[in-house]
């Protein structure tokens, strides 16, 4: 039976097999009552809820709210991180001024600041955006700073020997050389931003994914909770895809990407 | 000048031109140039003139200060308060080509140039080194020899009065290196910059240079002027090689490379 054995081999090596089997077992356990609805909704129920919430507009409207929080937070955090890294990376005086503070900041887990931010900014949008901004600043700062300092000194010297001014050196040599590091930092920042979003949205939200989850918890709607978890996962994937797309465009000169 | 000037005497050939004093002022003029790192004096009261269009090869043991001297001439290290005059139009070709990997080949060639028609100029220079077809390539896709040719094009597009080469072909295979010698000579004849080329390869120095300097103990320990046309140096090579290797303080263990009694890099 060569066809059957081939089929089983293809299935056996397929990366889809185990997730599908997992879903099937989950569904079966739900149908037989092994997993009660109030503990965890069945995959089919989750899919139904997803469709329902999408059609009713409940999911999209709350997603937009969450998305805006991430976007604002990231915009502020990433911009600040880049500016500070440029200050610290491009001048010794800037490093002396900026780096110690950033290192101190690094020792404080951002989420531990939540109570303080609530005291300062209340319970509206501001503390949520501020938390995201604060958390996403550091990966960008750290990576870009070390990227700038790690630019091949021989390339800088070579370019300088062709009469480039300091500003031209920064623009043509140092920043492009540090770009791969910046993108690594950006990727970390994006995933941290989503992580912080999840926690920040637990702060008395009246809209957003966190609000949906909180509500669902109160009504024991595990299907809605799972839908929201799925959306968080999709957000994370999308963020990663975004950085990959930027990398593919910005780093075309790299051999690994040239081969592709 | 208290450097040990040595001239090989061969009665049947007139191999070396007399040290005539040219009418044009030198493009490079160093007097009493000293360079020290901490207590380590690398270059010690060195005098050096290079005349317009002259092709000078600089030999010396590893660590003798060849790169240090070249960096000073290239303006990569400044020499405050010293009697150093070099032309402002000069270009350096390093051993590693030092192309910016994120700029296409032609943008590397015109890096830092001002003015119109940059792509046009880059294309002309690249055609001269036989790489017109790689104008839009990314540097990391070039072979070592190609990268070095781009580096040459990048230096020559500036029409420098002084071209500084620091072991530009050391990383290339023997055949490619020979081709590069031909190319460098062609370019030199076409553009006539003064050239200072640092090399470990005595044969390379003999094949290319008008004058060979040996740097030792921080001074020009010896120099050889070769008047023979470049095509007719085969006989001379053998004689001169053993002599230069002698000056360099080693014996000719390998065919062409100067041995490093104190360890190489
Ligand atoms: N920036 C520096 N600081 C301290 N010492 C240095 C520095 N640059 C060079 N030196 C020392 O100066 C000496 C000469 O170095 P240089 O690079 O000029 O040698 P070189 O003749 O080019 O040798 P090679 O043939 O191996 O390239 C070496 O002993 C080196 O260690
Ligand atoms: Mg050297």
UniProtKB/TrEMBL annotation, chain A:
Cellular localisation: Cell membrane
Keywords for this protein = Cell membrane, Membrane, Transmembrane, Transmembrane helix, Transport
> Which spans are transmembrane here?
71-91, 103-123, 129-148, 192-212, 224-246
Q: Name one GO biological process term.
A: alkanesulfonate transmembrane transport
Provide the ABC transmembrane type-1 domain boundaries: 59-243
What is one Pfam family matched by this protein?
Answer: BPD_transp_1
Q: Which domain of life is it from?
A: Bacteria
Q: Which InterPro entries match?
A: MetI-like, MetI-like_sf
Function description: Probably part of an ABC transporter complex. Probably responsible for the translocation of the substrate across the membrane.
List the protein's name. Binding-protein-dependent transport systems inner membrane component
Please name the source species: Novosphingobium nitrogenifigens DSM 19370
UniProtKB/TrEMBL annotation, chain B:
One Pfam match: ABC_tran
SMART domains from the entry? Answer: AAA (SM00382)
**Per the database record, which ranges form the ABC transporter domain?**
28-242
Could you list the residue ranges that cross the membrane?
Answer: none
Q: Which GO terms describe its molecular function?
A: ATP binding; ATP hydrolysis activity
**InterPro entries the record matches:** AAA+_ATPase, ABC_transporter-like_ATP-bd, ABC_transporter-like_CS, ABC_transporter_ATP-bind, P-loop_NTPase
Family to which the UniProt record says this protein belongs: Belongs to the ABC transporter superfamily.
What PANTHER family does this protein's entry cite?
ALIPHATIC SULFONATES IMPORT ATP-BINDING PROTEIN SSUB (PTHR42788:SF17), TAURINE IMPORT ATP-BINDING PROTEIN-RELATED (PTHR42788)
Protein name stated in the entry? ABC transporter related protein
